[in-house]
């Protein structure tokens, strides 16, 4: 009997082992486990399970489908696209395949519509997917409709939207797009009826309210716009954001009493709105009503220890924005960090203050503390964001960008890292990405003023000046005294070289008594761009005398003095700033550039070298150092610097070109020199000087035909350049064409070459005879 039980037990064990090793059973178990994680909102864990299922079966369409949905929840659109594309290819007809098709269409459409530069990547992906769909299918028709709308073919867009609506009626997103096409065709009443119909069917859908609100404002139907905001809030009484949108409407139409009434009602109902007080303070802070924000934040100090800490941080934020740095630092040191020494948010705030106040000595300590906090709380979006702030303050922008993206992934509705990311994108000239980032913020918070201002900058960077101006004017129409929008509009007119309009805006800004310092800098820049340097210096000097501790003012004055060729005054200003910030590579760079412009090359070299020591990975300091060493005949030292630059920035065209020239002149490896010159030419094909270097190396290698081709083109483009004519003469002489070479040399002399080059030209003429 005992033996029989052993046999049964072994059989059961073998059966269990067989099940775990059966790929079909294993993959289904992984899928089911992933579905449970997905249902509970644990998307990272779900993705692991789905990927495990795919390791058992790489053609498991349902796992690809679920993985794609998971990546969408994580806002990882590239990975979602890849997974859903495989699901679309592998799934049999049914609800999952239909849904994967629709979501794929949404991804391709979003990429296509937000790619304002119409890059080949997004267009090819969009058109390829479009071509795979059934011509009569809903997704094919709606994609064709959106494409026609983007191409401004409104008649075709209308036709396609109507055809799609017949396939799938009462699709809210489609109806909204169709309504906007009708609005563009001046058929507003029809569009209005469609939007109101969506609201009647689905009162919780915020999009049609927002569409009508914007249209009513643009049509000067203020009462109807207000009614839309009120109706949206009344139909969704427990949605805090909708109440804040109504409050924003009132504040932008100068009805502060109504705004205060709404915010007070929110705060007095903590059961419905547990974060009401905090959101109310944030609201006033976003509209720069700092005293009101402080009132709400201070009202929350009597809560729990955690709530008190949170409101203290908020108060510190407001004090920083008010420029009350000493008070903010005192609050951080004596209360916040005294009660919670390892508080990452307070640490980040203090790090930002140290930077703004010129105290970088403890910044690395703040970074270290934040890195420790992130190690303990890797999914805490606030800690990630503040580590990003600290990296940004330290100048490590790529690390900051990574932290901001991670914070967004952890908490998609957290706007602060989204705004910071958009600012970084703008600072790096990534205007398309910045536009997309700001539009994502506005989808989450339509009334976000900071996002609208950043969106105007992105539009301006893309050359869409009229749209950028319209964005700012829309803000000012709703809020005429908004200082930030007014200042940005002044900068826009300045960049568009509408100097009279810019000056008028900055002077009005000053008359309003808000943003005085920034408006003074803007006014000075108006004069600077018109070469009226004395006026610019006068404006800035007066402002510095009133606010001698403002770094931005002192820097603006020093920079303007450089442009005005008041080099002694600029040098003194930079030296005074360096005395307070001895580790600022940027200030040493500016000091070196001022010495260079004033003709003091030895001192310029010394300061560029100091800047390079402070920031050894910054190619800006190294390139100027190399150029000056090259210019002063120290070619061996310059060669070392160029090589170091290429280790930092392998595609730096200046370093590639100049290193190629040095190698050719010093008898170095001509093949290496030729490679460098060709890479420089690929990087900057329009620079004639790089073509000259390439031709010069061809001459050194006795490749006369190649050299002559280059110099024929250079002389045709720049006939007055004596160097190009001299080098063309050398190529002709090497080829045995002495008469033409002599003519080129004579023409070179007529164009007044430098003294050293003139001697070489005459020497070659003697050889020709």
Number of helices: 44
CATH class of the domain at 702-769: Mainly Alpha
Overall spatial form: globular
Mean pLDDT: 84
CATH architecture of the domain at 702-769: Alpha Horseshoe
Strand content: under 5%
Instruction: Please bin the fraction of helical residues.
Output: over 70%
Low-confidence stretches: 1-19
Instruction: Determine the N-to-C terminus distance.
Output: 120 Å
Class derived from helix and strand content = mainly alpha
Supply the CATH superfamily name of the domain at 702-769: Tetratricopeptide repeat domain
Indicate the radius of gyration in whole angstroms: 33 Å
- The beta-strand count equals 0
- What is the CATH topology descriptor of the domain at 702-769? Serine Threonine Protein Phosphatase 5, Tetratricopeptide repeat
The biggest sheet, with number of strands, parallel, antiparallel or mixed sense and barrel status, is: none
Task: Please tell me about this protein's structure.
This protein has 769 residues and is mainly α. The chain has a domain of 68 residues: Serine Threonine Protein Phosphatase 5, Tetratricopeptide repeat (Alpha Horseshoe), CATH 1.25.40.10. Helices cover 79% and strands 0% of the residues. α38 packs parallel to α40. The radius of gyration is 33 Å and the shape is globular. The N terminus is likely disordered.
């Amino acid at each position: 009997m005992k033996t029989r039980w052993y046999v049964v037990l072994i059989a059961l064990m073998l059966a269990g082992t067989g099940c775990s090793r059966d790929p079909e059973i294993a993959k289904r178990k992984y899928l089911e486990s992933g579905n449970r994680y997905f249902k509970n909102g644990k998307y990272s864990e779900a993705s692991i399970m789905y990927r495990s299922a795919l390791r058992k079966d790489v053609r498991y369409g349902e796992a690809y489908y679920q993985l794609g949905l998971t990546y969408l929840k994580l806002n990882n659109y590239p990975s979602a696209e890849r997974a859903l594309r495989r699901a679309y290819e592998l799934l049999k007809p049914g609800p999952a395949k239909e849904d994967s098709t629709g979501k794929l269409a949404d991804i391709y459409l979003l990429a296509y519509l937000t790619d304002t530069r119409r890059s080949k990547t997004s267009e090819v992906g969009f058109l390829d997917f479009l071509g795979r769909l059934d011509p009569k299918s809903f997704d094919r028709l709606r994609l064709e409709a959106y494409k026609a709308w983007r191409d401004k073919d409104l008649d075709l867009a209308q036709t396609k939207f109507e055809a799609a609506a017949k396939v799938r009626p009462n699709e809210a997103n489609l109806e909204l797009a169709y309504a906007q096409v009708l609005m563009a065709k001046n058929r507003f009443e029809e569009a209005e009826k469609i939007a109101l119909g969506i609201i009647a069917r689905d009162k919780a859908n915020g999009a049609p309210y927002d569409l009508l609100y914007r249209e009513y404002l643009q049509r000067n139907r203020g009462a109807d716009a207000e009614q839309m905001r009120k109706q949206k809030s009344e139909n969704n009484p427990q949605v805090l954001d909708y109440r804040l949108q109504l409050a924003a409407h009132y504040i932008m139409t100068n009805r502060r009493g109504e705004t205060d009434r709404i915010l007070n009602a929110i705060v007095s109902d903590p059961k419905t709105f547990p974060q009401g007080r905090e959101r109310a303070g944030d609201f006033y802070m976003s509209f720069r009503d700092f005293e009101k924000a402080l009132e709400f934040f201070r009202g929350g100090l009597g809560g729990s220890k955690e709530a008190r800490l949170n409101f203290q941080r908020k108060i510190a934020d407001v004090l920083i924005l008010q420029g009350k740095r000493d008070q903010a630092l005192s609050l951080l040191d004596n209360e916040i960090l005294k009660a919670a020494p390892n508080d990452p948010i307070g640490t980040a705030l203090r790090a930002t203050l140290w930077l703004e106040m010129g105290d970088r000595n403890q910044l690395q300590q703040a970074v270290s503390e934040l890195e420790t906090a992130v190690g303990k709380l890797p999914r805490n979006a606030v800690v990630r964001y503040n580590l990003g702030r600290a990296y940004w303050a330290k100048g490590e922008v790529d690390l900051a960008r990574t932290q901001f993206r991670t914070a967004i992934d952890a908490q998609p509705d957290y706007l602060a890292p989204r705004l910071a990311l958009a600012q970084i994108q703008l600072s790096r000239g990534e205007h398309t990405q910045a536009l997309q980032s700001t539009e994502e913020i506005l989808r989450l918070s339509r009334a976000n003023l900071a996002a609208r201002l950043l969106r105007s900058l992105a539009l301006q960077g893309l050359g869409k000046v009229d749209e950028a101006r319209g964005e700012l004017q829309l803000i000012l129409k709703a809020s005429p005294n908004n200082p930030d929008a007014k200042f940005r509009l002044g900068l826009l007119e300045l960049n568009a070289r509408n100097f009279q309009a810019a000056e008028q805006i900055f002077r009005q800004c000053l008359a309003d008594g808000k943003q005085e310092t920034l408006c003074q800098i803007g006014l000075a820049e108006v004069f600077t761009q018109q070469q009226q340097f004395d006026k610019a210096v006068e404006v800035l000097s007066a402002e510095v005398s009133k606010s001698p501790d403002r770094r931005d003012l002192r820097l603006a004055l020093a920079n303007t003095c450089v442009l005005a060729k008041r080099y002694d005054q600029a040098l003194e200003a930079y030296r005074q700033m360096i005395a307070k910030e001895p580790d600022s590579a940027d200030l040493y760079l500016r000091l070196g550039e001022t010495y260079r412009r004033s003709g003091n090359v030895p001192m310029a070299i010394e300061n560029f070298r100091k800047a390079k020591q402070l920031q050894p990975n910054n190619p800006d300091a190294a390139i100027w150092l190399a150029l000056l060493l090259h210019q002063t005949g120290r070619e061996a030292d310059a060669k070392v610097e160029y090589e170091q630059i290429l280790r930092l920035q392998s595609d730096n065209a200046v370093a590639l070109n100049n290193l190629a020239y040095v190698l050719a002149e010093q008898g170095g490896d001509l093949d290496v020199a030729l490679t460098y010159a060709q890479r420089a030419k690929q990087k900057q094909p329009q620079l004639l000087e790089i073509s000259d270097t390439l031709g010069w190396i061809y001459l050194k290698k006795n490749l006369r035909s190649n050299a002559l081709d280059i110099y024929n083109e250079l002389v045709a483009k720049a006939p007055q350049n004596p160097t190009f004519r001299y080098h063309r003469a050398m190529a002709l002489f090497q080829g045995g064409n002495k008469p033409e070479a002599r003519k080129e040399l004579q023409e070179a002399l007529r164009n007044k070459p430098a003294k050293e080059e003139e001697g070489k030209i005459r020497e070659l003429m003697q050889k020709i005879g």
